Amino acid sequence: MTAFDSVEEAGKALAAQGYLTDDRLATMVFLMTRLEKPVLLEGPAGVGKTELAKSLAAATGRRLLRLQCYEGQDESSALYEWDYGKQLLYTQILREKIGQLVADAPDLHDAVDRIGAQESVFFSERFLAARPLLEAVRSEEPVVLLIDEIDRADEALEAVLLEMLGEYQISVPEIGTFTARNRPYVILTSNNTRDLAAALKRRCLHLFLDYPSAERELDIVRSKDTGLPEALARQLVEIVRGLRELELRKSPSISETIDWARTLAVLGVDELTAPVLSDTVSVVVKYDKDVRKALEALPRLVDPNAEVPETLHGHGHGHGHGHSHEAPKVSADRGSRSFGRRS
Ligand SMILES: Nc1ncnc2c1ncn2[C@@H]1O[C@H](COP(=O)(O)OP(=O)(O)OP(=O)(O)O)[C@@H](O)[C@H]1O
Ligand SMILES: [Mg+2]
Asked: In terms of domain of life, where is this protein from (predicted)?
């Protein structure tokens, strides 16, 4: 049972769910479904890492199971827990039965042994509360498993994931090993706040998801029906790309481009001017210092000829010079560099 017959089909199926890919991303999705290997998506905030897992689930008709990682998280929230409350309830209801079991025990030692012999009753699947990883392995139907923001969890949790990522199985000492009937599609995401263990990386296909090309970002904005006229959306995408080059503390992401487009549409803007963009810039940049940098750059981004600093004269001649050429190059570079890290 394969999800997609070709890279193209994978891209189309995701697009039908409102998720637009480029060739590299569609290839990765196709490969992950074929090779049955987990995918590790790294990249800045808001470039569509989480959304990819959701869209893949929708495109393949699979249920999405999600493990949201956080600092200090322990393995029981990822794998399973013993349902203590249920165990207690059962022992209370069965008090009489348990009483009979030990009624004629000659001493405490013997009574404990007799109870011990029944332990497997209480540490059986009945009392197991499955968390996302075990749930994914036990599921009758194939699922998509999203392990979101793995870099927020401690390294110990990474180690816990290895058995699952490598063999699609989970061992519960009291019961045995559960092996997935249907291999889940596993997507891990990371914002790169720390380096992940080599053992984890080795088990995954790796993709650095960067800001999209101008064309794809425009396609995405268009697909969201923001209400902003085409020409303005195109210009807005270029302006956001310009902001990304400012080395802000937090660069605007795709979702912020979409928000900005919606904001401007609601305001009924019919021309992108520096004042209009300045008034709404807080939709896309969220830190004080970033806002100041953005305000300074906006007049130049709106009209490259307007206020070109003295030092750049004779360089920035053509209208809109640089944007559509330079930016894609940067993202392509970043992508291949991080692919190089894989081994
Ligand atoms: N390829 C895409 N096609 C359509 N929409 C997209 C795409 N990429 C991103 N988006 C939009 O951007 C939003 C943010 O994406 P998402 O939440 O997946 O980002 P993320 O990479 O998981 O960010 P974070 O690291 O902050 O969790 C999505 O809700 C979606 O609207
Ligand atoms: Mg996310």
From this structure: Bacteria
Residue 239 to residue 260: CA distance in whole angstroms: 11
SS3 41: strand
Task: State the ligand closest to the CA atom of 18.
Answer: 1
CA contacts within 13 A on the Cβ side of 222: 12
Distance from C-alpha of 91 to C-alpha of 36, rounded to nearest angstrom: 43
330 band by pLDDT with thresholds 50, 70 and 90? very low
Q: Give the mean model confidence (pLDDT) for residues 199-215.
A: 94
Per residue in 52-61, pLDDT (tens digit) is 999 999 999 9
Cβ–ligand 1 contact at 220 (below 6 Å):
yes
Atom 25 of ligand 1, nearest CA residue: 45
CA distances from 101 to 24, 87, 123, 124, 335 (A): 64, 17, 18, 19, 66
Mean pLDDT of 27-49: 95
> CA-CA distance, 262 to 256, in Å (whole number)?
10
CA torsion through residues 102, 103, 104, 108, sign: positive
Residue 336 has pLDDT above 90, yes or no: no
The separation between CA 39 and the C-alpha centre of its own chain, rounded to angstroms, equals: 10
- Rounded Cα distance between 41 and 52, Å, is 10
Three-class SS state of 140: coil
Amino acid at 340: G
Cα distance between residue 161 and residue 158, in whole Å:
5
Pocket test for ligand 1, best of 14, 17, 50 (most atoms within 8 A of CB): 50
User: Helix-strand-coil percent breakdown of the chain, rounded to 5?
Assistant: 55, 10, 35
**Predicted local distance difference test score (pLDDT) of residue 337:** 34
CA atoms of 214 and 113, how far apart (whole Å):
71
User: What is the pLDDT at residue 341?
Assistant: 35
pLDDT of residue 2: 74
